[in-house]
Specification:
Number of helices: 0
Helix content: under 10%
Strand content: over 45%
Length: about 120
Amino acid sequence: QLQLVQSGGGLVQPGGSVTLSCGAFGLTLASYNIGWFRQVPGKEREGVSCSRVSDGTTQYLGSVKGRFTASRSSASNTVYLQLNNLSPEDTAVYYCAVGTYQCSAYELRIVHYWGQGTQVTVSA
């Protein structure tokens, strides 16, 4: 069964860090572009980053650039999103996603598979 399984997240203090993981089962992540998204209740899901398999580059949403880092491990078939210097505005459900179509800047435009989402809450 093809699926993406996320872990990580939780409650983090402002200025803190957290790492999100997204493991793949039934598909090889090295063959896909990887997107990370987030969603706040009542708002549309927004792209956070998009990593291209073609050249290994990643683009980020402006508000997270320099604070978030996306990476992947072929050995463990897992992708990660490291979130640093978090602020309450980063509170959201975060989703990993994979697709074979190109990234549009920091957003994966066509998603083939979604992770189940994981909550990140930034609060003192």
